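Q: What structure does this chain adopt?
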Amino acid sequence: MDVLEEEAVEVKEKRPFPVRKLGFAVLALAVLAAGAFFAWQYKTKSDATAAGDAALATARSYAVTVTTYDFQNLDRNFADVLDGATGEFKDQYTGASGSLRQLIQEAKATARGTVVESGLKSATVDRAEVLLFVDQSVTNAATKDPRVDRNRVLMTLEHHDSRWLVSSLQLL
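A:
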């Protein structure tokens, strides 16, 4: 082996580090990670938006359920309210329903709720807060004309077993 061959062998063994290839690999990995992150953020926001829309629709329907009753059909009215309730609100309503039932029956009262307006205050995939403006037209044996109560309600809903249920209902 002569000197030139020895230098050629040494040159082959001392190849420069492939910085350019490593740079492209790091850049590609960063682009993929950013893409995955933004896709995850979009899906999370999209899921929360869909959940909020579903919770808002449930809240509007439930507001009518909870503000509509007829003294002749209280068992069904109360069962419907309890069916859409959970947690603290369900416990409170169950506790108050006995005395409420007596008052409604004695007054021979009927009520019909109408949601005037509603809006989503906040929402995640498993919890939402909804603000509702609900008019309730109430009649009873003692009054000739209906009385309209204009209720402002903050409703908290929780997602349980594929359903939105009301866990808190506050009159504002």
